Amino acid sequence: NYNQLYYFWAVAREQHLTRAAERLHVSQSSLSAQIKQLEAQLGQALFAREGRGLVLTEAGHLAMNYAEAIFRTGSEMQAMLRDGQTSQRRALRLGSLATLSRNFQENLIQPLMGKTDVELVLQSGTLEELTRRLYVHDLDAILSNKPVQRDSRNKVRCRRIARQPVSVIGPPLPQGQHFDFPADLNQCPVVVPGPSSSIRTGFDLLCERLQCQPDIIAEVDDMAMMRLLARDTGAIAVLPPVVVRDELKNETLQEYGALPGLFEDFYIISAELRFQNPLLEELMSRPAEEILPQ
User: Fold this and answer.
1) 73: number of CA atoms within 13 Å, CB side?
2) Sign (positive/negative) of CA torsion 29, 31, 36, 37?
3) Which of 20-29, 270-279, 282-291 bottoms out in mean pLDDT, i.e. has the lowest?
4) Better-predicted residue by pLDDT, 73 or 4
5) Measured distance CA(51)–CA(39) in Å, rounded
6) Helices then strands (H, E): number in the chain?
7) Given this model, what pLDDT does residue 275 score?
8) Which member of 36, 139, 245, 291 lies 3.0 to 4.6 Å from 162 by CB, making a disulfide possible if both were Cys?
């Protein structure tokens, strides 16, 4: 019932039974009994002991998300009936790979920025961490440049929303001079993505096929660091142009050319739900050319 859910919500926020009981002005034994009744009705343990405190289980995290939504709706109902108006704020919680291009993320969420009725939460992590949070409904979706395969264990939707060629990018060349690929690639220091990147795998295969042996001076997983090295070291970088969008625009860097057959794909990964967050549907419905303008 609503009262049990409120008690659960209070304990989850305090992460401590005694403090929650004091805040609610009820006895600790009464509060504990209400939580146990709720767990029995749900058929799941909502808390686990950790030292002297309590932490949410996976089921507890899921219940907490629903409780937050229920009490937020209750507050809106009160505001509407009392004042005749409510903020109707909508929330979208996105996880993104820590190594993902910041420019791509900004391009994607741009339509939601500045909307007074939208609360946007954007958090980064590894794909494994973010996927776990997706399963317990702590995130609405994950932004990734790596796909996730759906199977009996991973019940997710993985949709490719954009694709961009991978290019050779470096300092501006003198007027009239051109970069001769692949010959010039052997003459310059080169910065490439790390071995775990699909871009790196494709680049290595391309070099092998063309019998090219570039002088690799750095392997970098983080695209933000790739951007800095490309901008500040004078080395040539192998990366999607969106990563250095601003530097190309102000001519700090120059795109020498796209690498044949090499692309980076961008995905939105979501849980397989009957009803998706409408804000997520809005982002996924955008044409690829709006997300990554050429």
Assistant:
1) 7
2) positive
3) 270-279
4) 4
5) 21
6) 11, 10
7) 62
8) 291
What ranges make up the beta strands (E) of 76-211?
Answer: 90-97, 118-125, 141-144, 156-170, 189-193
Contact 67, 9 (CB under 8 A): yes
Q: Report the amino acid identity of residue 62.
A: L
189-193/215-220 β-pairing: parallel
pLDDT category of residue 69 using cuts at 50, 70 and 90: confident
Token pair 């507050």: residue = 75
For tokens 């996730």, what's the residue? 148
Task: Report the amino acid identity of residue 44.
Answer: Q
Residues 13-51: b if buried by 16+ CB within 10 A, e if exposed: ebeebeebbeebeeeeeebbebbeebbeeeeeebbeeee
DSSP 179-231: --TTGGGGGSEEEEE-TTSHHHHHHHHHHHHHT---EEEEEES-HHHHHHHHH
Q: Would you say 126 and 97 are in contact if contact means Cβ atoms under 8 Å apart?
A: yes
- Nearest C-alpha neighbor of 160 from the set 43, 15, 288, 6: 288
Strand pairing class (47-50; 53-56) = antiparallel
Give yes or no for a contact between 166 and 238, defined as CB atoms under 8 angstroms apart.
Answer: yes
Residue in 199, 244, 200, 247 with CA at minimum distance from that of residue 224: 244
